[in-house]
């Protein structure tokens, strides 16, 4: 174990130590568990101090984690929530019972963890990555706070992800699609095998993957490892009722529980899939944690779920929605939802920015048919695609029928979208977590005037 002296007034400030943490991004993605296990050993294995639920998947895992953490907290447990990436502030990633990790705890924890980095290098393990250090910080803080249970969102894949050092009470696999093929493989089968690496012998498993091949593989893995499996859509499901621009209602048909007339402030059929996944996981945790599932607490937990950047309405006149869809599967679900909610509007204006390493044509394939007005922009990220790169991915016979405007800056792109908007227009900002975070910061930092159409950026 390594003993580190606590930071003093002369040590790094919060901003300075975060800058040091962000420099670790230069190490890129280094999948594998050995270095992470050694790092955790050096900080006294905090991950062994609490039970966990680990959630992997291509899409839906962040929302599922947020819903589940809210449900668990309402039933009286102290729950840690670890998600990534963040939209605006680093400490969004690490939360206990709805409260972000304080800055002073980030400073204290990172001082301890980063202090172990040199020793890891000296012992031949290499320098820990940004995500490994951040995951270790979450584990350290959860142990320090005495959480009963941690809900952990996998960063990339599953089998070799830094979060996969725990022995979970429940392993959850959400929808699986094509993304990060350079790390996970170029077929659904290869990607599924990587994500199913979170399944440990004898743990319970919840699966909401819609691909039949992925479901079959997960069934086989659960059988081989002696795991109980709950399949969303077969064993449990949500029956949709009504929806608006901000909420939807449904009936839950669970393993033992049947609860009618539930509401959640997340829209889209895919969010009902995520809600059913979270509720099924709650049912599996019931015996282990002596939870008595109470429909009133379920209602409250669902209503108080917050998933910023997931079809989030952040402006009303005209309505502006933000969504982090950044792969073809997510774009497909987004387009399906926007067709429904857009029925009450004359036109849809899309502000779009994306990272260069994403499947840009695959994402656009779903989004282009639902709009005639597009503003292309560049998120503030090293891997961001230039707007003209995105423009070149749009076939000419498609672009000729649409109004497409290019703006390098996100603020300018938003301003252009407001300029295009009419009395009954709807604006959607999508394509990248970085774009959504930047747009959200711009929009929410301006109070909305009580006028029919207002541009917050003027």
Distance between the termini: 55 Å
Instruction: Give the % helix.
Output: 25-40%
Low-confidence runs (pLDDT<50, min 5 residues)?
none
- The CATH class of the largest domain: Alpha Beta
Structural class given helices, strands, pairing? alpha/beta
- Integer-rounded radius of gyration: 22 Å
In spatial order, strands of the major sheet run 4-3-2-5-1-6-7-8
Specify the CATH architecture of the largest domain: 3-Layer(aba) Sandwich
The general outline is globular
Please give the count of helices: 17
Q: How many E strands?
A: 17
The main pleated sheet reads as: 8 strands, mixed
Compact description:
The chain has 458 residues and is of the alpha/beta class.
């Amino acid at each position: 174990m390594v003993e580190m002296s606590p930071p003093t007034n002369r040590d790094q400030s919060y901003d300075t130590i975060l800058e040091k943490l962000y420099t670790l991004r230069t190490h890129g993605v280094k999948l594998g568990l050995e270095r992470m296990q050694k790092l955790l050993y050096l900080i006294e294995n905090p991950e062994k101090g609490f039970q966990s639920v680990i959630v992997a998947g291509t899409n839906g895992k962040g929302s599922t984690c947020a819903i589940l953490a809210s449900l668990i907290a309402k039933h009286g447990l102290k729950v840690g929530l670890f998600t990534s990436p963040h939209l605006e502030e680093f400490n969004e990633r690490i939360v206990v019972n709805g409260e972000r990790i304080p800055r002073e705890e980030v400073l204290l924890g990172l001082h301890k963890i980063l202090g172990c980095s040199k020793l890891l290098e000296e012992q031949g393990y290499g320098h820990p990555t940004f995500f490994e250090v951040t995951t270790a910080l979450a584990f350290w803080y959860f142990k320090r706070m005495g959480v009963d249970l941690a809900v952990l969102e996998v960063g990339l894949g599953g089998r070799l992800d830094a979060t996969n050092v725990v022995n979970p009470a429940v392993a959850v696999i959400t929808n699986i699609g094509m993304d990060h093929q350079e790390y996970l493989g170029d077929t659904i089968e290869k990607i599924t095998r990587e994500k199913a690496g979170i399944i440990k012998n004898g743990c319970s498993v919840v699966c909401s993957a819609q691909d039949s091949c992925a479901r079959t593989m997960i069934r086989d893995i659960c059988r081989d490892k002696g795991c109980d499996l709950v399949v969303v859509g077969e064993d449990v499901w949500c029956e949709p009722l009504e929806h608006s621009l901000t909420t939807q209602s449904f009936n839950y048909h669970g393993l033992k529980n049947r609860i009618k007339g539930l509401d959640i402030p997340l829209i889209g059929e895919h969010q009902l899939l995520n809600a059913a996944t979270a509720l099924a996981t709650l049912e599996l945790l019931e015996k282990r944690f002596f939870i008595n599932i109470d429909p009133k607490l379920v209602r409250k937990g669902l209503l108080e779920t917050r998933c910023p950047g997931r079809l989030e309405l952040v402006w009303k006149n005209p309505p502006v929605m933000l969504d982090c869809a950044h792969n073809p599967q997510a774009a497909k679900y987004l387009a399906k939802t926007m067709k429904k909610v857009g029925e009450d509007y004359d036109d849809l204006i899309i502000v779009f920015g994306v990272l260069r390493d994403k499947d840009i044509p695959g994402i656009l394939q779903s989004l282009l048919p639902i709009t005639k007005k597009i503003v292309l922009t560049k998120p503030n990220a090293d891997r961001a695609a230039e707007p003209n790169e995105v423009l070149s991915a749009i076939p000419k016979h498609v672009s000729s029928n649409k109004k497409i405007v290019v703006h390098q800056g996100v603020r300018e792109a938003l301003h252009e979208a407001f300029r295009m908007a009419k009395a009954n227009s709807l604006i959607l900002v999508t394509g990248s977590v970085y774009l959504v975070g930047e747009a959200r910061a711009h929009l929410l930092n301006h109070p909305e005037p009580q006028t029919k159409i207002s541009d917050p950026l003027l």
